[in-house]
Amino acid sequence: MDQDELSGDVLGAAIEVHRLLGPGLLESAYELALERELVLRGHTVERQKPVPLEYKGVTLGDGFRLDLLIDDCLLVEVKAVDHLLPIHEAQLLTYLRLAAKRFGLLVNFNEKILKTGIRRIVNGY
């Protein structure tokens, strides 16, 4: 599955979760539901995957955790905020860079219409 197909499938899963649960829950609830929906669709999902932080050639431990890593290539950062801010996009871009992944989705479930809360971010390496 290419990245466009995978992104489309993940977005379809996110829309299904949003349709059933609606806005107003905590990020963790959406993360769990999205993980389940993606598994039902046949994807491999790693939730809260730790990523080591390397600094000047030294591993400093687990620097951060990825919300969802889909099929070992698409990173999904789940939010439940009033609205997405530039810092959220910067966070996902940094996660992509440090995890050496090419592309990711920022999904804010706290929107009346989910489509307005989705951003696709590409890491140019």
Structure description:
The protein is α+β, with helices and mostly antiparallel strands. About 40% of the residues lie in helices and about 35% in strands. It is built from three helices and five strands, in the order ααβββαββ. It has helices spanning about 5-20, 25-40, 85-100, and strands at about 45-55, 60-70, 75-80, 105-110, 120. It has a five-stranded mixed sheet with strand order 1-2-3-4-5, with helices on both faces. Helix 1 (about 5-20) packs across helix 2 (about 25-40). The radius of gyration is 14 Å and the shape is globular.
Strand count: 5
- The spatial strand order of the largest sheet comes to 1-2-3-4-5
Low-pLDDT regions:
none
Q: What is the CA-based Rg, rounded?
A: 14 Å
Note the topology.
Blueprint: H1 3-21, H2 27-40, E1 45-55, E2 58-70, E3 74-79, H3 86-99, E4 103-108, E5 118-122
What is this structure, in a nutshell?
The protein has helices at residues 3-21, 27-40, 86-99; strands spanning 45-55, 58-70, 74-79, 103-108, 118-122. It is α+β, with helices and mostly antiparallel strands and 125 residues long. The longest helix is centred in the first third of the chain and has 19 residues, at 3-21.
